């Protein structure tokens, strides 16, 4: 079966994963990974991405939004575009606690950024205590653990916290997302002179990265990169 056809016919939502080395979650073929190599190669990626925010662009360089209003971070990279079936993989990881998918996504992200300059430390956006109790884990932190381990970069989340619970971001437009996250993060740690990479699951408008980037910059970070498992193809789309 051609790669794209295999993905389009994927059985989603997925059955619970049993033991390692059974079936690819997309084409149900035998493999030793969550997703087989053929399906992984066919997953959607961005041919040309804005070097500042990782949004799809026609030509290499900055997108119009970053030229007009540079965000509070210096560069960004994404392993995939947030389209089918990547969106289903991330949903399964995030809301069904399929940590095997999270580990696989983390390795894919680490491979994507391996050629980039190494930061001094990696961080992940913290969850509010209520959300953490509800979900049972911080999906961004799980990704960050894998990326930090694979790249040999220290993970340093101690001192970062959510100051308040926020409304879910999906369904909100750019301005609403920014307002929702304004002042939502705080930092009690010292990042003076450090280059920092923020790792999390999906970037849509970049509101999370901007809010956390401002806090890290205030704590002394000299350069802030954003590394995500997936980037929405249309940053203006509030549905993601």
Report on the architecture of this protein.
The protein has 240 residues and is α/β, with parallel strands linked by helices. It folds into two domains: 1-42, no CATH class; 44-231, 3-Layer(aba) Sandwich (Rossmann fold). The protein is 34% helix and 14% strand. It has nine helices and six strands. It has helices spanning 3-8, 37-42, 64-68, 86-95, 99-113, 129-135, 139-151, 174-181, 207-218; strands at residues 75-81, 121-123, 160-162, 185-187, 195-203, 223-231. It has a four-stranded parallel sheet, sandwiched between helices. Strands 3-4 form a two-stranded antiparallel ribbon. The relative contact order is 0.16.
Observed structural traits:
240 residues, alpha/beta, Rossmann fold, 2 domains, two-stranded antiparallel sheet, 9 helices, 14% strand, globular, disordered N terminus
Quick recap:
With 240 residues, the chain is of the alpha/beta class. Helices cover 34% and strands 14% of the residues. The chain is globular, with a radius of gyration of 17 Å.
Question: Helices, strands, pairings?
Answer:
Elements: H1 3-8, H2 37-42, H3 64-68, E1 75-81, H4 86-95, H5 99-113, E2 121-123, H6 129-135, H7 139-151, E3 160-162, H8 174-181, E4 185-187, E5 195-203, H9 207-218, E6 223-231
Parallel strand pairs: 1-6, 2-5, 5-6
Antiparallel strand pairs: 3-4
Mean pLDDT metric: 84
Number of strands: 6
Counting copies of identical and different chains, the oligomeric state is single chain
Q: Give the N-terminus to C-terminus distance in angstroms.
A: 30 Å
The largest sheet, given as strand count, sense and whether it forms a barrel, is: 4 strands, parallel
Global geometry: globular
Q: Give the name of the CATH architecture of the largest domain.
A: 3-Layer(aba) Sandwich
Give the amount of beta strand, in percent.
5-15%
CA gyration radius, whole angstroms: 17 Å
List the total number of helices: 9
**Numbering strands along the chain, what is their spatial order in the largest sheet?**
1-6-5-2
């Amino acid at each position: 079966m051609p790669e794209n056809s295999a993905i389009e016919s994927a059985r989603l939502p997925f059955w619970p994963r049993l033991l390692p080395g059974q079936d690819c979650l997309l084409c149900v073929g035998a493999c030793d990974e969550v997703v087989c190599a053929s399906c992984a190669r066919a997953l959607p990626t961005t041919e040309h991405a804005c070097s500042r925010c990782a949004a799809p662009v026609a030509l290499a360089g900055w997108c119009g939004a970053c030229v007009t209003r540079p965000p509070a971070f210096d560069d960004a990279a994404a392993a995939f575009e947030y389209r089918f079936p990547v969106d289903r993989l991330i949903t399964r990881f995030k809301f069904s606690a399929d940590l095997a998918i999270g580990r696989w996504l983390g390795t894919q992200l680490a491979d994507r950024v391996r050629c980039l300059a190494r930061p001094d430390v990696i961080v992940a956006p913290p969850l509010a205590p209520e959300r953490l109790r509800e979900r049972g884990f911080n999906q961004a932190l799980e990704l960050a653990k894998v990326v930090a381990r694979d790249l040999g970069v220290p993970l340093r989340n101690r001192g970062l916290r959510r100051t308040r619970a926020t409304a879910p971001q999906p369904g909100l437009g750019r301005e609403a997302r920014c307002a929702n996250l304004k002042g939502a993060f705080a930092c009690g740690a010292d990042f003076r002179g450090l280059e920092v990479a923020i790792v999390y699951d999906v970037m849509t408008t970049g509101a999370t990265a901007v809010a956390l980037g401002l806090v890290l910059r205030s704590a002394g970070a000299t350069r802030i990169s954003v590394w995500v498992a997936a980037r929405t193809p249309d940053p203006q789309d509030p549905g993601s």
